[in-house]
Design a protein that fits this description.
The protein is of the alpha+beta class. It folds into two domains: 249 residues, no CATH class; 135 residues, Protein Transport Mog1p, Chain A (3-Layer(aba) Sandwich). The protein is built from 15 helices and ten strands. The chain has a six-stranded antiparallel sheet with strand order 5-6-7-10-9-8, with helices on both faces. The longest helix has 24 residues. The chain is globular. It starts with 8 loop residues before the first strand and ends in an 8-residue tail after the last helix.
């Protein structure tokens, strides 16, 4: 759901000079260590790679995170949700898009910093500093585990990545400013976030809003929480976040909710209600994902933010039967009575994808048919369950009964 490929790239727009080699990297590492407040525990090797070599690395990381045809299946989900065009080749577009944005990256598995050889000499030291922060993070906190997706929870994976990348982004700014002056750092970080969101994609392909934002968010989404912690404890507050990462994007969108407002565990049970259907994907949207659900093209972001407030927890299932695909989901809210907002939110999503979507916002439960899909929904205690199934109404009802009955808070682990 999230294109959650945890590769710690330096984005284009902050490009690297590759001609000065190991000596420059050693010099920048020394200063970055002082500015960031993390000692150098071992040297960092620097190498230069061509675009073809970096594309090979991107493909390698994608294949590790998405074994078999799971990336293609995620692409089918994104098409079903209306987040990418139906005709898009998701894999090749993702590979080209990610590679086109790369100025350099730190590879914690080989413990080396890789510079892109084909880029112009616009900015060199700041981007090297950004990537060397990842090297220091790896030495002190360990990034090998953090590079792995959290199984079944892309929402938490994104939240963790936003702390790792946000830390490096703020440290890069501090490096360029010669130190950590919070009065200057806060507005500079806000300005950089805006510039990053508006940066060109540097690819000839059309890149959907969702894919742009999912790549950019890790660099910008955690900055507000990070700065809040820095205001209180300077870099020690950031170090503490690495030892206790946020568990959801809700805690990034609303920094005051970290660390106490933990996600509500949801575990959907379908049993025999699936009938001939099989689970293809099981994951979590998080509050950020529900914002995309309501505003997939970025044209209703303010409304999406309003409707998604009160997110408590969720889980969705993407289903398959031959070439057919179906969908089921549950969302729980922090407070009773907030389900009505999510009925409106889901109605917005359905209206963007179906010709005759049911008016979910008008009634707490119901059923409709559009474009060959059975769409059924039901409010539950402090939540909403819904099903989209290209099958007979009886099958959709059985699945909704199962999803709704398990759409409740589970004991926290």
């Amino acid at each position: 759901m999230t294109t959650a490929i945890s590769i710690f790239f330096a984005l284009i727009g902050l490009q690297a000079n590759t001609g000065q080699g190991q000596g420059l990297v050693d010099e920048v590492l020394k200063v970055t260590s002082r500015v960031r407040g993390l000692s150098v525990l071992r040297p960092v090797k620097a190498v230069s790679h061509t675009k073809e070599q970096i594309l090979d690395y991107v493909k390698e990381r994608i294949n590790e995170e998405y074994p078999g045809d799971s990336l293609e299946e995620e692409g089918r989900l994104l098409k079903h949700l209306g987040w990418i065009p139906m005709e898009m080749n998701y894999r090749s577009t993702l590979e080209e898009f990610v590679t086109a944005q790369v100025a350099g990256y730190f590879d914690p598995f080989r413990e080396r910093f890789v510079l892109a050889t084909w880029l112009p000499d616009l900015v060199q030291r700041p981007i090297i500093a950004h990537e060397l922060v990842h090297a220091l993070q790896d030495q002190h906190f360990g990034l090998k585990k953090a590079l792995k997706r959290i199984p079944g929870n892309d929402d938490a994976t994104i939240a963790r990545s936003a702390i790792i990348e946000g830390d490096a982004t703020i440290a890069m700014l501090a490096y360029t400013m010669g130190g950590t002056d919070m009065s200057a750092l806060v507005p500079a970080a806000a300005s950089l976030s805006e510039q990053t969101r508006d940066a060109p994609t540097l690819t000839t392909r059309h890149i959907p809003h969702y894919m742009r934002m999912s790549l950019i968010y890790p660099y910008t989404g955690g900055i507000e929480l990070l700065l809040k912690r820095m205001t209180q404890q300077r870099w020690a507050g950031v170090d503490a976040l690495h030892k206790n990462y946020p568990k959801s994007t809700e805690q990034l969108l609303h920094p005051d909710r970290y660390p106490n407002d933990q996600p509500i565990p949801v575990q959907l049970a379908t049993g025999k209600a699936l009938g001939p259907w099989q689970e293809s994907l099981r994951n979590r949207f998080g509050e950020l994902g529900f914002r995309f659900l309501a505003s997939p093209l970025g044209k209703q972001d303010i409304l999406a933010a309003q409707l998604s407030q009160g997110w408590g927890g969720d889980q969705y299932l993407f289903l398959k039967k031959g070439k057919e695909r179906g969908f089921a989901a549950c969302v729980l809210t922090d407070e009773p009575g907030q389900q009505v907002n999510y009925r409106t939110l889901v109605e917005l999503s359905l209206a963007a994808r179906y010709n005759q979507p049911p008016a979910i916002s008008r009634q707490p439960m119901g059923h409709g048919v559009s474009d060959g899909f059975q769409i059924a929904w039901r409010e539950v205690a402090q939540g909403l369950a819904w099903v989209e199934l290209p099958d007979e109404a009886k099958q959709a009802k059985q699945l909704l009964d199962a999803v709704a009955s398990s759409c409740r808070a589970r004991p926290r682990p």
